[in-house]
Every structure is written in C-alpha cells, then in structure tokens.
C-alpha cells in the first residue's frame, strides 16, 4: 500500500526504546513514533503512553523514499480525532429557531410573571 503524509493509519507497537516506539503497519511497512510525537506534554516514560502489542491510531508525518519506513505521530492523530469529534458535537448543541436578543426580549415578561407566581406560592 502507498502511504502519504497526513494519512491516518493503524498499527501495533512492536518495540519501545528511550527515544520512541516502533510500529508494525503491514508486511512491508513499519514506522517510528519519536518520543516528541507521543504527547504535547513532557514524556518521562514512553511506557506510560503505549505498550508493546497495543493497537494504536497514528498520523503519518513523513514517508522515506522507499515507502517502507514511516515517521508517525500519536499526538497529531489524537488532535485530529478530537477536532473531528468537537465539530460534530458543536453543531448538534446549537438549538434551532430564533436566536439572539430579540428572543430574550420577547420571553422576559413571561419569565418575570412566572417568577412572581412562584414567589407568591
């Protein structure tokens, strides 16, 4: 399979070194997630982020000339997933109908009347 930078792929962690994690993508392709591509925060121990045998979703940063070695990012894949999820949730939370101060001005007298009724109860 041909891979391109920016593509999201799944792989399995096959090895962990102090500088990064090795990933199996397919029979002909493997990759490396450098320690700086695991998280936006400081990474003291790579094993806190990935484990050998774990299936992970990664974003391709670069492909070598042969196409068999990939530079991968865990943090970029997570950021893209979060952006996609937040885009969908934002549109779902916006109510349909009249929006703005006009709606508030129309409903304010009704709310005041309801509050007065509750106060007298």
The total of helices stands at 2
- Oligomerization: single chain
The radius of gyration is 25 Å
Q: How far from one another are the termini?
A: 73 Å
- What is the strand arrangement across the widest sheet? 1-2-3-5-4
List low-confidence stretches: none
Number of distinct beta strands: 5
Report the major sheet: 5 strands, mixed, barrel
Q: Based on CA inertia axes, which overall geometry fits?
A: elongated
* CATH homologous superfamily identity: Nucleic acid-binding proteins
Give the topology string: H per helix, E per strand: EEEEEHH
- State the share of residues found in helices, binned by percent: 25-40%
Task: Outline the structure in words.
- By secondary structure, the chain is an alpha+beta fold.
- The protein has a single domain (8-93), classed as Beta Barrel (OB fold (Dihydrolipoamide Acetyltransferase, E2P)).
- The protein has 2 helices and 5 strands; from the N terminus they run E-E-E-E-E-H-H.
- The protein has a 5-stranded mixed barrel.
- Strand 4 (55-63) and strand 5 form a beta hairpin.
- It is elongated, with a radius of gyration of 25 Å.
- 14% of the residues are buried.
- The model has no long low-confidence stretch (mean pLDDT 84).
């Amino acid at each position: 399979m041909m891979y391109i930078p920016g593509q999201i792929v799944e792989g399995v962690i096959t090895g962990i070194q102090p500088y990064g994690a090795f990933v199996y993508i397919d029979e002909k392709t493997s990759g490396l997630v450098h320690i700086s591509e695991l998280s936006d925060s400081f990474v003291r121990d790579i094993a806190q982020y990935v484990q050998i045998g774990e299936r992970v979703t990664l974003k391709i940063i670069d492909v070598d000339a042969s196409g068999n070695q990939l530079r991968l990012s865990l943090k970029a894949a997570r950021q893209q997933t979060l952006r996609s999820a937040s885009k969908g949730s934002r549109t779902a939370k916006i109510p349909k109908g009249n929006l703005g101060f006009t709606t508030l001005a129309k409903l304010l007298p009704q709310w005041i009347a309801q509050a007065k009724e509750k106060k007298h109860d």
